[in-house]
Amino acid sequence: MTIPDKVLETLKERREKQLAQGGPDKIKKRHEKGLLSARERLDALFQPGTFQEIGVHVRHQCTHFGMEKKEFPGEGVIAGSGYVDGRPVVGFSQDFTVVGGTLGKMHARKIILAQEFALKTGAPVIGIQDSGGARIQEGVDALSGYATVFYNNVLASGVMPQIAIIAGPCAGGASYSPALMDFIIMTKSNAQLFITGPQVIKAVTGREVSMDEVGGAIMHATVSGNVHFVAEDDKHAVQIARKLLSFLPSNNTEDPPHDPTPTVSMAEDNEILKLVPGDPSEPMDMGAIIRRLVDKGDFLEVHQGFAQNMIVGFGRVEGIVCGFLANNSMVKAGCLDVDSSDKGARFIRFCNAFNIPIVTCVDVPGFLPGIEQERGGIIRHGAKMLFAYSSATVPKITLIMRKAYGGAYIAMCNQELGADVIYGWPTAEVAVMGADGAVNILYTKELKEAEDAQARRAELVAEYREQFASPYLAASRGYVTDVIEPQQTRPVLSMALRRLLTKRETRPPKKHGNIPL
Hints:
- This protein is α/β, with parallel strands linked by helices.
- The chain folds into 3 domains: 226 residues, 2-enoyl-CoA Hydratase, Chain A, domain 1; 195 residues, Alpha-Beta Complex (2-enoyl-CoA Hydratase, Chain A, domain 1); 34 residues, no CATH class.
- The chain contains 20 helices and 17 strands.
- The chain starts with a helix and ends in a 17-residue tail after the last helix.
């Protein structure tokens, strides 16, 4: 059978029309702003020649406001699947050059088809958001489309990783799909993420604010905590997404992409000693310590600008992928507060959903005191850490490096919260509170009556620290697996990770727990 030339020509014409996006003039204007087109963004993400599109010829069905006479190439979104660094990935990219990338029923349908394909095949999803929001002409049909996208985001949560790239406007209800995904990457310029913009805020409250204050990348990365990574431009955003994927399994039935070295090096790292201050009251650069623990210093920090008293991120130790949580005493003395508890708990739950071992580095003097914290719900937010660690069944390794006081010691994954092994440095202090505070309470009368109160107080602090706050008391009770020298941390951690990769732990059957949100 020979297909008539006219039939093939028709197919070619239709395909070219769909692939043209908004036309060369609109694409040129984007390039002048330093932006890639929707299709160029996908080209940068996927390996050449591997992307297969979904719904190329999909067309809207709206007949109101003269819409029946209009046709929009690709319906304002490009969706499909392909390979990223050898792994199947599903992606979609909204096209602002076509009716502002607005979402109508069939625009949403293409995204939904991509989501359903990902759910069937167990492939990660990367969604590039660049849209003017709901297509007003389609009314409730557009809202129906959004709702189904949100519903699928929730179905996919914990099943396969979902990454959102905010590379343009993402306003109103459109912002909830990224919020339901696991990670948000946002470009520094030309991107906005907000529910109500400056004009609405001024109309309702009378307050004048800039777009950067309301929906800019820096604000979301440092204040609201909505954004996990800030990218310089479209290409950088794609690079971050690819780097992130390199640490993650494709879905919850797989292990992370471990690449264990043939043998475990037991070489000690004496350089790490230079990073440990002699005075326990001095801050310690936990980020630098983590980079000495991971392979080649390659640590992908998540939420870097938000709640900086807590560090979270991904790395490999002798080829084993793991998630790190660590107190950062260089900010707020490393105390746990409302934001750092949220940041830590969410990261723990992500790692647990995708079988990623968790390494917790402890240097915490307690929960941050203050009326703002109490009124802000520190009890509820701090309980999220307890809930997240307790419910996590992945390998959990805790390293107590310095302070581990009170409820914060528990919240940073002590033995009773399910830590499989706990190693302490000789500098570790495990106690209800610091030695200074404890002496003030325990020896109030004696210090008042002492001839040289200051000297006596110093003696009592040293005595308390040695007897009650050192790692050896906790180790003698079996709460600490072993006390190790700091320079032995990497080989000890590596060996522990290897031993725990076969860990299996079940919990009582239930629909789900009720995390203190």
